Batch of 2 targets.
Target 1
Amino acid sequence: MTSSMPGPAGSGPRTVVLISGSGTNLQAIIDEVGQNRLPVELTAVVSDCADAFGLERASKAGIDTVVVNFGDYGNRQDFDRALADVLEDLEPEIVVLAGFMRILSSTIVTRYQGQMLNIHPSLLPKYKGLHTYRKVLAAGDRFHGSTVHYVIPKLDAGPSIIQYRVAVRDDDTEESLATRVQQGEYVIYPRAIEWLASKRVELRGEQVFFDGEPLREPKLINEGGVGPR
Ligand code: GAR
């Protein structure tokens, strides 16, 4: 199920990106690597969905792709085992969940703890799980955003590294809000990956350290801002 491609993009820690769909975050990461602004080797893109558009983005960039199609497995355990085997073979130093819409087994998460990041479209700890835009609008919140965090076995609960925050407008719809939040995701995700690759950010136990100091709250970029580098 692996397609052989001309060679991995970039150089640095071996980095595997897991996707399920469109892969616009993947594209932002590919672009940053291509511009030599993100020092990682994009070793492979793995999808749990055979028709994820992100696979085409990866192929176009010359990155190996692997499909572990959830539908091909009789049950969750077999899928988890197949995915674990694929990851083991790829020997990643960093695992990036970029719109990967399946909950990973705690075995996989524990195996890569401190090396695995996720991006979630909310200002965590608010609004874990699905439909965050709908929930924010229904609650009448003034702000929404997205968070890059370490992955731990509990869903969307790992320590946060950086957030992007936008003000909710009176006339916002789920779509308009998502568009603005996603623009910020393309900034904060490559940046967090760069920090992890260069070991500026580290997870020790449940505490994030940044430049050797405990990070008491996630770094923050406000809409239109540049934020910390
Ligand atoms: C992203 O906006 C990401 O925040 C969200 O899925 C989108 C994937 O888009 N992730 C989650 O909801 C995870 N719980 P993409 O495939 O275009 O990068």
Target 2
Amino acid sequence: MGRGSQAGQAAARAAPAGPRKGNTVKIVSVDPFILHLPLTSDSISDSTHSITHWGVVGARIATSDGLVGYGFTGTHAHLPSDRLVTSCIAHCYAPLLLGEDAGDHARLWTKLARNPALQWVGRAGITHLALAAVDVALWDLAAKRAGVPLWQHLGGARPAPVEAYNTDIGWLSFDLPTLIDKSARAVEEEGFTRIKVKVGHADPGTDIARLAALRQRLGSAVRIAIDGNGKWDLPTCQRFCTLARDLDIFWFEEPLWYDDVAGHAKLARSTSIPVALGEQLYTVDAFNAFVSAGAVAYVQPDVTRLGGISEYIQVADLAHANRLPVAPHAGEMSQVHVHLSTWHPASGILEYIPWIKDQFEEPIAVRDGLFARPQQPGASTTPKAEAFSRFGKPLS
Ligand code: 0YR
Ligand code: MG
């Protein structure tokens, strides 16, 4: 793996820019991998999850011109389920990809996603996470072959830079002094004007007290979004929203169970706090249900859970057509979102969680609260050789 990573980068730099002149470039290998990267804090919790590592579970795809592409999904570093994803890549998708033209990724997406046998066992879940990894690797290859960063390959940058909001200051496991201290430092020393705070205590009054103290410390100019990670029921969310009236909450993310379209629609109608969701949705059809029901204001696709970039673009276009802003999930845990947000006209705000960035050849960078535009050819998904040697896990 490590050698592959270095070879991939060298080849990407040597790749001639410009059109392929109709040559087909064959897929010669598809190799899954698992990395368990330690968080920058020892452990964190939101209302639903407690984790110590982030799982980067992916596919390394090599082509006949010597290029190597990387794509991955994100997990909570649970090895048995990570291996279900890599098994799907190795045993279900690789045989469908070997010998194919790597540049044909629209057709290849359909070949994998609509394969009758695979569709039978999963239009979402494990098979879809594996599809995300493979699809992103193919886009990474396409941009490397073109010799440009993915955002440029997709059509170039929107005029405005992408604003970063910091979630790493606001975990539910932080006590109030830590929450306030980290938030104040992010705003006053690092230049963030947007932050996101986790909520979801058994008594929503606890969250109100934390947010009121934070609002008082930071003043009215800082945008504070909150994230419930699907914990509360509808009456609890409604009680919370009533109590939060004067706190100027920018959005309420995943207030309810992830798939509950009717519940989110009811909540959206009963509060002026905008509803945000999408990081747990696997398909454009799921997004379509929420958008059609008026159940979402900020649309939050995740390329590592949708079937990769190919399906993300459909979701972003759906939001755009409905004049809804797109604010993708975690730009650090899926660097691809920086490229997609730099390019797509409905984007403008992106989550910042700095856990895994330093394990990649081109780390994501935020300056004065804005994401820097990636410069290297590809999708910024190539892990460092050292990441494989230090944090790689056996596939069986
Ligand atoms: C930890 N961002 C999120 C982490 C975070 C989750 O489970 O994955 O809190 O990704 O909800 O918006
Ligand atoms: Mg979230």
